[in-house]
Amino acid sequence: MAEQVMNNRDLRGVIFSFFRTKPQNVCDKYKKVCLWNDKIVNRYMEIPILDHTVIHYQCMECYWHAGTREFL
Questions:
Q1: Which of 13, 26, 29, 57 has the fewest CB atoms in 10 Å of its CB?
Q2: Which residues pair with 56 in a beta bridge?
Q3: Better-predicted residue by pLDDT, 2 or 30
Q4: Distance CA 47, CA 38 (A)
């Protein structure tokens, strides 16, 4: 039975479409997923480093902690 299902290209395409891909953007400090399948999961900031060749991602929680660290 399983061989019949996996040999059917249409069913196999539908089944594999439900698997998730790797996250696109992950927070560098807390490792929270920020962007997955072009949908924003957590709000985040893109911080370019050097000559915009390296982009550092921070979720808004990390960004807030980094900004208020000086005041506390």
A1: 13
A2: 47
A3: 30
A4: 19
